[in-house]
Give the backbone structure.
Amino acid sequence: MDAFLSIDPTSGGVSLDARHPGFYGNPNPTYSVLLELGPAFYWREQKQWYFTRYDAVNALLRDRRFGRQITHIMSREEAGLGPADPRLADFDRAESKSLLELEPPEHTRLRTLVNRAFVSRHIERLRPEIAALAHALIDSFKPRGSVELLAEFAEIIPVTVIARMIGVPDDMCRQLLDWSHDYVRMYQFGRTVEDEARANQAARDFAAYVVRLAAEKRARPQDDLLSLMVQPARDGQYLTEEELVSTTIVLLNAGHEATVHQIGNAVNIILASGSDPKSLTKDEAATERLVEECFRISAPVHIFDRWALEDVETHGLSLRRGEKIGLILAAANLDPSKFPDPLAFRPERDEGQNLSFGAGIHFCIGAPLARLEMNTVLPILFDRLPGLRRTGAPVVKDVYHFHGLERLDLAW
């Protein structure tokens, strides 16, 4: 057994060090081992059950007996959470009305209002703008013959696109990245007191900026998401300031953080495979299959938690009301009963939907945008830079349960 993993065959309990480079650097082999244990395992360090198999994860994502929120039906004390930490007051306030954390009826109302703004943009219309941005970035570094892809390409495209959609000026994109990187520290395993302080400060600054920008949009509406969100819907409903802040932050974070990771992950996987990248992106259908396979085998977000909203019997486990479980999307994507030879990178796969975007009422609202960005930029990158190759070992970020690269050095 690996140094970071031990399994008690009697109880099924698992000890797994999520901060060990042998795990977070390449979690897939470990997931394959965990999948053999059954639909779920008890992760001792995290003190809860985690589900891994495709059918179980897919079903639980849609099971309304589980939710992202628990304090709407029981107190923090009853849920074992203890009192709110005053050091995290700004972060908690920014999260309080997040689409990722709410349950119906609040979630239904907010998601409807956001969909009104988000879907009305007709995501496909962004393709020329995304392509133009990709070409401009490549123009800037192509003459050099080398690039660090994350800093000069993968980070810039998603944050610029979502910022423009929402109505944030381009010159704020660097600041958005910094706030986002600090903010998502709260979601990583083994976070430190310093991580929490930085996340709370980022939430405070982020929220203050959104409030100022929203005031500008009310005074001078423009053709962007924030201008739409500050206006009442047809039925007169509107977003409160708290809801507006939470929603804007989650759209900005979710709208780029995972896609940054996925561009780097995908390029790395494709180049490591030895396949001809141009043949994999020869037409739209081939590119779409390639993109889905990259999402399947190297998902950017690995886990979503759920609370049991009532006592539940599921997949051989008895769960109590208020008990938290984890759903490992990335492991479900490697279930051999759904995806034969799951550790193999097969761009031609057509075996059904991966779970990288979740499922059910919390299915990722930005999935169409992420897919469009990937399907647009990968063919451009490989067409413009023939002979693209890695010039050093990729550096993986220590940010489990996200999975992405710190560096990807390339040359052509």
Remarks:
- The longest helix spans residues 193-219.
- The mean pLDDT is 92.
- DSSP finds 17 helices and 14 strands in the chain.
